[in-house]
Amino acid sequence: MKKTIIYILLFVLLAGTITGSVFTYKWYQNEKYIQENSSIEQVADLKEQIQILINDKNELIVQVTNLQNEIKDKLDIIANKDGDISDLKDYISKLQENIENLNLQIAEKDNKIKYYQELLEAYQDSDKLIVSFIIPGIEIDNVYDVHVVNEGETPGEVVTPDYDKGTFLGWSLEPYGEVISLSTLQINENTNIYAVFDYALEAFTWTEINTIANNGLAETYFDVGDKKTIALSNGENATVAIMGFNHDDLTDESGKAKITFGMVDILPTQYAMEDSIANVTGWEDSKMRNETLTTIYTYLPSDLKDTIKQVDKVSSIEGNSQVTTSDLLWLFSWTEIYGTGVEGSQYEYFSVIENWTENNEILIKNINGTNTPADWWLRSMSVTGYKYKGITSTAGTSAPYANTEYGVSFGFCI
Questions:
Q1: Are 78 and 144 within 8 A, CB to CB?
Q2: Is 128 exposed, middle or buried (0-12, 13-18, 19+ CB in 10 A)?
Q3: CA-to-CA distance for 18 and 393, rounded, in angstroms?
Q4: Which residues pair with 241 in a beta bridge?
Q5: What is the pLDDT of residue 319?
Q6: Packed helices 39-79 and 86-124: angle between N→C axes, nearest 10 degrees
Q7: Phi-psi map region of 225: left, alpha, beta (phi>0 left; psi -120 to 50 alpha)
Q8: How confident is the model at residue 33 (pLDDT cuts 50, 70, 90)?
Q9: What mean pLDDT is predicted for residues 18-42?
Q10: Of 71, 104, 103, nearest to 88 (Cα)?
Q11: Closest to 240 in 3D by CA, of 288, 295, 186, 201
Q12: Residues 196, 2: Cα–Cα separation, whole Å
């Protein structure tokens, strides 16, 4: 878990509950009014937004009037019609529902107009200062609350943000900064104050994680070792952890993959690297790479597959030479775990291991969902030519025949 800040736009002045929302106040996305520009620019912007809202509200009122006239026409038809009128009554009921929905939208526009007008008055009053409470997040800066104060005053009391992805820690004068006390803070200029949260990787969708990573905030939000569970479409689960940041080379040569994930344990089903020990040539042409992991990839949820990036992987082959492949899913190499050799470099996740045998409990992998440890494969080839390296259920090393069924602990990058 890591201290960080989230983007949710919330206007405290607009009270009301939205089903499914993590806050108990009405919130709006894609709008921000914080002190980034001059007051003159802010005033002009607010006036423009108010006029847009008024125009939108007037259009909604026209729609309501048209529906009311249509209902009146239908009622006149009913008054002069003999026989079954159930269809007309049903149609009128639908029109009335539409009117109710439009009236809700009108009320929402009124609330926003009122809020912006109050904010506009504050901007136009040269004796007042603006305190914007910001909850930064994945894509945009959002205003949580705005207080208008006199110079030298404290910011005032703020409703505690309630976010389902973590625990609110307090407020800070800097994004990702130290928590401060608002009760002793004096405001002497327009000020932004930022919310600080503590939460876990598990709470985020893969789409959100990918967006955080693409914005360069992965190491701010998350830590090596943070975990998340993946539900595979074949009914199995895979719990993965962050192995490292900016570690693997992207195949498209655009730089480093932002986050590398790897399984904490192994899949319930065990697999062989090859069908037989004949013609074993290494990771590039292995059944594990070309069939088994290709099939497992299809079991991943679509939002995760949309984020996974192809990365270059270096693997040893017979005769102590190496080959580079481009992979979506892959097994770990000897070097990526122990830090010795030429098959990439050690992940931070495994950096606790010393001298191969000290602090190596992290290599004991259970069959996912159980407390039963099992042996598992590496993609590194043994020098014998028909064996691959592996890790035993007691964190030792092994070199089983390629057609042995071992545990699979795959990795991937986003």
A1: no
A2: middle
A3: 50
A4: 227, 262
A5: 57
A6: 160
A7: left
A8: very low
A9: 34
A10: 71
A11: 201
A12: 10
